[in-house]
Amino acid sequence: MSAILSVEHVGVRFGGLVAIADLHFDVAQGEIVSLIGPNGAGKTTAFNVMTGFLKPSQGEVRFRGTSLKGLQPHEITRLGLARTFQRTSVFPDDTVFDNVMIGLHRQGAAGAPGIGRAPVLDALLGRAGASERRLRERAEALLDWVGLSARAQEKAGSLAYGEQRLVGVALALATEPAMLLLDEPVSGMNASETRVFVRLIRQIRERGVTLLLVEHDMPMVMEVSDRIVVLNYGRLIAEGPPDRIRTDPAVIEAYLGQGSAARRAAAEAQEAAHA
Amino acid sequence: MSRLLPLALLGALVALPLALGANPYLLNALIVTGIVTIGAMSLNLLLGFTGQLSLGHIAFFGIGAYVSALTSLGFDVEIGFGLRVVHEPWPAAVGFVLATLAAGACGYLIGRLSFRVRGAYFVIVTISFAEVVRLVALNWVELTQGPLALTNIPAITLGLPGIGAWTLKTKLQNYYLVLAIGTLCYLVIARLVGSRFGRAMRGLKENESLALSVGINATRTLTVAAVVSAAMAGAAGSLYAHYLRIIDPDVFAFTTTVSMVIMVVAGGKGTLMGPVIGGLIFGLLPVALRPVMAPEAQWIVYGVVLILILFVMPRGIVPGVSALLARRRPVRAVPVLEASPVVQR
Questions:
Q1: Rounded Cα–Cα distance for residues B77 and B87 (Å)
Q2: CATH level 2 (architecture), domain B24-328
Q3: What pLDDT, in 10s, does the model give residues A36-85?
Q4: Which residues form the ABC transporter domain (chain A) (predicted)?
Q5: Residue numbers in B near A147 (CB within 8 A)
Q6: Partner residues linked to A14 by β-bridges
Q7: What is d(CA A36, CA A30) in angstroms, rounded to the nearest whole number?
Q8: How far apart are CA B300 and CA B297, in angstroms?
Q9: How far is CA A130 from the centre of its chain?
Q10: Could you tell me which residues are beta bridge partners of residue A181?
Q11: Which value does ipTM take for this structure?
Q12: Is the minimum CB–CB distance between A196 and chain B shorter than 8 Å?
């Protein structure tokens, strides 16, 4: 398996504050990888570096062999690396349908299949009818796929939290990504909503999209991930399949601290693993 | 309503002179109101649809006025190093086209300069730009005559080879010219806003990070909006120059920008009809008030009207009235996540 995304010795410093010290890992084509770690470990910072919202102080990110150094967020999206956001995942004043239409922006760009060479001019001259129809069909199909058809004509900002997350996923998928970064996709969801979302994640992978998530919900992470990367204080402290991460002493220490209870828990977990 | 109201208004405006007869005072008020309304519509493209406030919008208007006037009057200026630029007068219609293009080019420059850093910076850059252009118009006397004003600007002549030509000298002709250009601008804005480009503008305004993350190029989108907006303001300035047939550096007055902002905000920014309604109300208020009170008192009334409108309808007249008209539909509560096809599979 070849790496679709390589994070190569990335460091991020804000003045004297080290948000990420030295992060180095790969994500292989078709994998579901989770990036976990306690609050403030640098997970969202890492996401922002991968998607061009932050410039790393050192190192670089490569996506499908291309260095993302110096690229703007919209340029990175055009390479096929899409993301969702933790809090504000929708365009709140537009309907759910129009949200997806905005998300289909690149699919209506000059040079995209079925689109003329000057889309703005076509719109002015009223020649954009056919391409608009095609975009609307795709928006409908996408909404149907994530299960939001019933909400299509409602304002995105008025939807429940979990549904807004789905809109965010539909927006990201509208860019036809090869890889999707999900920033805490199930935070604030209840158990049944989370279960549905896990299924959605698997179906996204079946579409051939590689996934990297940042998430706090440990049962969900353990269930869905092929591999887990653990960050603490801006450093990678463990990497491996869920079973190994669950019993890794460094990980347990990072989450529970160095107290004797934590050590005992780690020892017991290790024993349980050996048994 | 969205289709019917503009058509009804257009019909009323076409029929208005027939109903009023040739009342020069009223026609003059309507023409000037129409020209400023075109300016307000162009401002709305930036302020209402992208959320960027151009407080120097009058610069594009004034540039349009001067470019058009100078193109049709001709000039002969020394630009230093012993070089002289001599320009023979061209038809006023060519001036109109050049005014639109020149103002659009200025919009491009301002957009490229300031859209890397937005918000307050854009406001400051636009104000500064307007002030610089005003000072140039005031002080480059050899070209602009400075405060002495450019006079004898020809009226626009429309003509088709083989059919004939009309010079638009009467108020009635100018009224219909302004109405036609205004309608054209309205249609251009409507098409743009309803297109993929309009969705990109809305996306940037509502949630910029998310818009970038779906591949929308912020600088490019905002620059295109600034170019179209500035070009329309330039076209309005050209109409102004060829209608009044005299312009001085006062066309760059900051208060005109403020009037346009008031028209947009009171009418409803981010709506197609907002600036038109706002423009008609604040443009024609003096006509309605003139028989009743002195100009000084009128200013107080403008203020009161604006405050009342925004107090009753904070988002402006058009959104406020639409909200009143729309009957609140009962909202069905379908738990979408549970009903998702993903679950059933």
A1: 9
A2: Orthogonal Bundle (1.10)
A3: 888 777 888 888 999 999 999 888 999 998 898 889 999 999 999 999 99
A4: 5-258
A5: 336-337, 339-343
A6: A17
A7: 19
A8: 5
A9: 32
A10: A83, A212
A11: 0.84
A12: yes
Neighbours of B5 (CB within 10 A): 16
Contacts of A192 in chain B (CB under 8 A): 337-338
Calculate the CA B285 to chain-centre distance: 19
Residue from B207, B224, B332 to probe the interface with A (highest A Cβ count within 10 Å): B207
Q: Is the pLDDT of residue B45 over 90?
A: yes
Cα–Cα distance list, B12 to A31, A157, A246, B35, B161 (Å)? 64, 38, 74, 17, 32
This prediction has a pTM of 0.84
Which ranges of B140-245 does DSSP label H, i.e. alpha helix?
141-144, 171-193, 196-206, 208-213, 218-244
Q: Where are the domains of chain B?
A: 24-328
> Is A111:B242 a contact under the CB 8 Å cutoff?
no
DSSP SS3 for A247: coil
pLDDT tens digits, one per residue of B204-255: 999 989 999 999 998 889 999 999 999 999 999 999 999 988 898 888 888 8
A–B CB contacts, 8 A cutoff, strictly below: 136
CB contact under 8 A, A150 and B336: yes
C-alpha–C-alpha distance, residues B130 and B62, integer Å: 9
* pLDDT tens digits for range A209-221: 999 999 888 888 8
> Measured between CB atoms, which of A51, A120, A135 is closest to B213?
A51
Spatial CA neighbour of B250 closest among B130, B102, B105: B130
Q: Is some CB atom of chain B closer than 8 A to the CB atom of A165? A: no
A interface test, pick of B315, B336, B344, B345 with most A CB neighbours within 10 Å: B336
